[in-house]
From TrEMBL, chains A, B:
Protein's name according to its UniProt entry: Transcriptional regulator
HTH hxlR-type domain boundaries: 6-105
Signal peptide: none
InterPro entries given in the database record: HTH_HxlR (IPR002577), WH-like_DNA-bd_sf (IPR036388), WH_DNA-bd_sf (IPR036390)
UniProt cross-references to Gene3D superfamilies, sorted A to Z: Winged helix-like DNA-binding domain superfamily/Winged helix DNA-binding domain
GO terms for MF: DNA binding
Pfam families found in the cross-reference section: HxlR
Taxonomy, superkingdom: Bacteria
Keyword tags: DNA-binding, Transcription, Transcription regulation
Transcription is among the record's keywords: yes
Length: 119, 119
DNA sequence: CGGCATCCATGGAGATACTG
DNA sequence: CAGTATCTCCATGGATGCCG
C-alpha cells in the first residue's frame, strides 16, 4: 500500500530485514566486494538470507550486482548512488552504537538475566 | 549474547521492533507526550504493541515514563538523554525517506505487482 | 537455491480499575 | 455509558534456518 506516514516510515520499509542495514554498511566500506567476502563480513548470516536480501536490495535499486561470467564464477556487489546515499544516512546510527556500546551491552545483559532470552 | 559485531549492529538491536524508531522519532518532536496522543501519532500501532515497545525502550533507558497516578489514568512519555541522542541519529534516515519517497513508492509498487504482497 | 519445519513477533479481542 | 492506560490469552503470518 503506497503511502507512508512520514519519511522515516518510508526508509524503515526499505531497510526492513534483519541484515539489510549491515549489508549496506559493509558495501559502503569500499569498492565492489565479492560475495564470499561480504558473507564473511556480515557475521551470522546464512547464505540463503544473504542472497535473498541482496536480491531485494538489487530490485529496489540500492545494490548493483555484477556477474563477470567467468569460470570459476565471479560475482561482486556494489552500491548504486541511491544505495550509497542511504548507507551514508546509516552512519550516525553506527556512531551511536559505537559510542554507547558499553551501555547497550549492560542493558542487554540485564534483559537476558530477566527473560532468559533477549526478546 | 553480549558482543556486537560493530556499532551499527548494537544500534540495530536496540531499535529492533517494528515501531521503536517511529516512537523515538515522535517523542523527539516535542516535550512529554501523553499516551493517547502518542498512540494517535504513531498511526497503525495497536495498544498492545505500543505499550510493549514503550516498556522495552524504558527498560533500555531510552524513554522515561511518568505516571501521575491520577484517576482517570494520566501517563506521559519523554526521552532520556540517551534516547534523545539516538533519536537524533535517526534524523538522516528520516530525511533520506523524505527525499526519496517518490522513488521508494515506485519501487514498492513494482514489488507489489510482482509478488502480490510486499516482501 | 527451493522445500519444509519452526519459532517469534505481531495483532486482535477482551478484561480491569476508577470516575464523571 | 464513556474515557484512559495497561495487561493477558490466543491466533497467525511471515521471517529464519536447515537440509538436500
Amino acid at each position: 500500500m503506497p503511502g507512508f506516514t512520514c519519511g522515516l516510515d518510508a526508509t524503515l520499509r526499505v531497510i526492513a530485514g534483519k541484515w539489510k542495514p549491515l549489508i549496506l554498511y559493509f558495501l559502503a566500506q569500499g569498492g565492489p566486494i565479492r560475495y564470499g567476502a561480504l558473507r564473511r563480513a556480515v557475521r551470522g548470516v546464512s547464505d540463503k538470507m544473504l542472497i535473498q536480501q541482496l536480491k531485494e536490495l538489487e530490485t529496489d535499486g540500492l545494490v548493483k550486482r555484477t556477474d563477470y561470467k567467468e569460470i570459476p564464477p565471479r560475482v561482486d556487489y556494489s552500491l548504486t548512488p541511491l544505495g550509497l546515499s542511504l548507507a551514508e544516512a546509516l552512519v550516525p546510527l553506527c556512531i551511536w552504537g559505537t559510542e554507547n556500546m558499553a551501555e547497550v551491552t549492560r542493558v542487554f545483559a540485564l534483559r537476558e538475566a530477566l527473560n532468559g532470552k533477549i526478546r
